[in-house]
Write a structure and sequence with these properties.
By secondary structure, the chain is α/β, with parallel strands linked by helices. The protein has 13 helices and 15 strands. An eight-stranded parallel barrel has the order 2-3-4-5-6-7-8-14, surrounded by seven helices. Helix 7 packs parallel to helix 9. It is globular, with a radius of gyration of 20 Å.
Length: about 400
């Protein structure tokens, strides 16, 4: 979906296909047929943006076979789908029964991360619509904090790899005329956990093609104030490459037994749901939600937030809620001013099948309806901010 900002620029809205697990190119094609095109039809649009997730095996197939890449581009066109952004954070296995810490490997200290991201950049340059010259890719925020933190050699290796990537992106732009930018995506528990954590490594790298991806669920989970966070990025000259529109799980009164019970329903074995609370002594947290609800790992006199991507249009029932207000405030700062701070927006709710059983979609139809409803909410927010939806 495309929108015209009051300044005349085009803002793109997509939804991320990591909600539809696929490790192979055949699986990606099935996503387009079974999910992405039905969502587009529900929205009544001739064209729908998707934030494509290409796992390692799918990406390698496309890199090694130009005919397959041309065929994918043709299929996107025929189904009314366009790609200006990729989710390069998960490497493989995102549809496994247990993902947890595996999603952070390989990290930026490992050669496979650089190789894969280079592949993604080349592929995105080829998949961009004819009238688009800029693409974006979100990626792992360097590494999970252990054993990375406190290891200066790991930090040097990771930053060197990202710098090498930036040089490759320069060469790609010169060769293709397509500008691809990469955004480190701060996430709780990682060495770059917050937007503030991103400033030092990004200013150290100091390259225009390397910036930040602001995920509004992660921002909220870490209790970051959107205005403060975005102003600090601007002051440091850090470019916001893209933003993922998402909402975290919020519990106002975690000391109450009924709140603990409600939270426990969202503790599940597939993904990590890092949980945080903001206290007078600073931010406290656990790596997963079950650690928080099971005992006294977190102070419970202040609200808790968990890294669980709640469907935007469907907050959980009381006594829980979502951090949709944080998303609204962030979006207003991102695109509500005289010029957009980013032009690529991506709804990323990959946890539909991790919801409590009674809330999960049971059919493809129900899932498509839910994704379309999320995109409709995001569209309405953009229109309310003065953007005009384009055909």
């Amino acid at each position: 979906m495309r929108f015209r900002h009051p300044d005349g620029s085009t803002v793109h809205l997509a939804y991320c296909t990591n909600v539809h697990p696929a490790e192979t190119l055949d699986g990606v094609r099935a996503q387009l047929r079974d999910h992405c095109e039905p969502v587009r039809r529900r929205l009544g649009r001739d064209r729908l943006g998707i934030g494509l997730w290409l796992a390692r095996d799918a990406a390698r197939t496309l890199i090694n076979d130009p005919a397959e890449l041309r065929a994918l581009r043709s299929e996107l066109d025929s189904r009314g789908l366009e790609v200006v952004t990729l989710n390069g954070f998960p490497y493989e296995g995102f549809g496994a029964d247990e993902v947890k810490y595996r999603v952070y490997r390989p990290d930026w200290t490992e050669p496979d991360r650089l190789a894969h991201t280079t592949d993604l950049a080349r592929l995105l340059a080829a998949l961009l619509p004819d009238d688009a010259t800029e693409g974006t890719i979100s990626t792992l925020p360097l590494a999970w904090r252990t054993p990375y933190d406190g290891d200066p050699e790991a930090a040097r290796t990771a930053r060197s790899a990202v710098t090498t990537l930036a040089q490759r992106l320069d060469a790609l732009a010169e060769m293709t005329g397509k500008s691809i930018r990469i955004g480190l995506e701060p996430e709780p528990g990682c060495t770059v956990e917050t937007t503030a954590d991103a400033i030092a490594p990004l200013t150290d790298i100091g390259h225009d093609r390397i910036g930040i991806c602001v995920d509004t669920c992660h921002l909220a989970t870490s209790f970051e104030d959107p205005a403060t966070a975005l102003d600090a990025l601007a002051a440091a000259g850090v470019r916001i490459v893209k933003s993922q529109l998402s909402a975290a799980l919020h519990a106002e009164d975690p000391h109450l037994p009924e709140v603990r019970t409600a939270l426990a329903a969202f503790a599940e074995p597939r993904f990590l749901h890092q949980t945080r609370t903001s206290t007078a002594a600073g931010l406290r947290g656990t790596d997963d939600l079950d650690e928080a609800v099971a005992g006294r790992a977190l102070p419970d006199s202040t609200p808790w937030r968990a890294h669980f991507h709640v469907p935007l249009h469907a907050p959980p029932a009381p006594p829980l809620t979502s951090t949709l207000p944080v998303l609204r405030d962030t979006l207003a700062r991102l695109v509500g001013g005289p010029a957009p701070l980013t032009r690529h927006l991506e709804v990323e709710t990959y946890t539909w099948q991790a919801l409590p059983a009674e809330l999960r979609p049971r059919t493809r139809t129900q899932l498509a309806d839910g994704i379309a409803a999320e995109l409709t909410l995001a569209r309405d927010l953009l229109v309310d901010l003065g953007l005009k939806e384009l055909p």
